Amino acid sequence: MTQQPFAGRGAIDLSALKRPAPQPAAAPAGGGPGGGPRGSGGSGGGAAAGSAYAVPVDEQNFQTVLQASTTAPVVLVFYSPAQAPESARMAEDVADLVGQYDGRFLAGLVDVDAVPQIAQVIAQASQLPQLPVPLLMVFLDGRPAIQPIPGMVPRDELNTLFNELGQQLTAQGITGRHQPLASAPGGEDENGEAGPDPRYAPAQDALAAGDIDAAVAEYQKLVDSNPADAEAAAGLAMAKILQRTQGVDLNAARAAAAADPDDVDAQIMVADLDLLGGHVEDAFARLVELVRRTSDKERDRAREHLVGLFAAVGNDDPRVLKGRQALASALF
């Protein structure tokens, strides 16, 4: 992803902190049991154990953390052990979950009891009298990428959110990844530095360049060489969706599907477009109903395509589990 200046409309004004941003320090090893965040106490603290992509935020590293969103999304979690003790658990969940995406996200954990100045800056930027806690914000290119999410968010919903964001990044050709803040087992190069898995680089570079056909070919090579590679299989499935929907007019596709509910091609196209737009459950429901209404070869086509969408989203996603149950009900 092309680096952008950290400025412009919508960026957070950091002048209220009145501190220069030093160079980022490597996250120290260790941490509390269970991978939970620690209060920074204004000194930076330690990153959440078990995740190389989560760091406590204080006044000194706040600007650096936000600047990292020019590479890939930064997820800020504002929590308060004093005001809302349960909010610390949500921060722990975010820290743990982002570690499963190999650098697609960086979590910044903000203990508002320890660093109230940061909460004040965000509240002012959001035109709020006071920042609610817990609060989750996602930044890309220094600007909020989604509406802030106040209140406790269950772990499974957080997982769904990150899955959707990851899909949308892939669909837009945004493939940047954060470097780990600490060395991760099995992720070091010849210089001892951790980095993204180079196997996926050709496919990701093709997506970034807008060459969908090349991305499909690269992912296909990975799947052919290792059919058990779940990440490659998911990348191939998503790249094929992008390939099928290139140049398709959404309104025309929806009109065609509405005019003929049993047209398998028309329904599949809208399901693909829904999934790319983040409407995953709508895409699944459309094809489940198509399976329910059709028979023989048409039913097989609808079912096989739905299974392909399951692969694109990921078999561990709770929406896929529900979708599989609905498919089984439609079939039997």
Automatic annotation (TrEMBL):
Residues 1-50, 176-202 are annotated as: Disordered. Residues 15-167 form the Thioredoxin domain. One of its GO terms (biological process) is response to stress. Residues 29-48 have a biased composition (Gly residues). InterPro entries: Thioredoxin-like_sf, Thioredoxin_domain, TPR-like_helical_dom_sf. This is Co-chaperone YbbN. It comes from Nocardioides silvaticus.
